[in-house]
Fold this protein.
Amino acid sequence: MSIEVRIPTILRPYTSGEKLVRAQGVTLEEILNDLELNYPGIGERLIDENGLRRFINIYVNDEDVRFLEGLQSVLGENDSITILPAVAGG
Amino acid sequence: MLFGMLEIQRSLVDSIVAHARADHPDEACGVVAGSIESNRPERLVPMVNAVRCPTLYEFDSMDLLRLYREMDDRDEVPVVIYHSHPATQAYPSRTDIMQASEPDAHYVLVSIRETGPDEGPFEFRSFRIVDGEVTEEQIFIQD
């Protein structure tokens, strides 16, 4: 299943500047793994050994995946993913 | 795109400083959106500091999604991302540098350390933060 993924400005160097890309998978984890296959390096900007990075937000449609099943969230055919880095600081 | 300077209307500066004072002693934060074409700060969007803290700020994740959707719909970008330092200088902290995620934005810092919530002198400075590197830029305030 091919899912549309919206890439934030800061990660577009990995996607040759593309704002919208597609990735294959049923779970968010599979989709992010497929993104990494096509755009090497992007994966570690999203995930670390503890899972989704603290200051990266990923949404399935209008839901923050932290309020769904995280990396195990299951996507349907018409779902889309938005990645947004947190706007945060000290 | 012009690097090294920020042109901004005085009314926007006043509103950002007023926001900093209103949220004292917590950090205040927000963006000034502008059209992709002009890349000028036009529309002030004060945000809630979801961590409500004198030394940290973070946009709520759902507010963040709504903000970016709205900017997308309006062909806007976050020209300015601002936050306040209630008790320290208007210079990016280590956390600010580590978490800066908009390489094209002007990061504006407001310090109200001298006056807190009251009227009076403030510091208002603008920076680019790209790959951990901070570059201060000149500010031109337009009346």
The first strand of chain A starts at residue 2 and ends at 6.
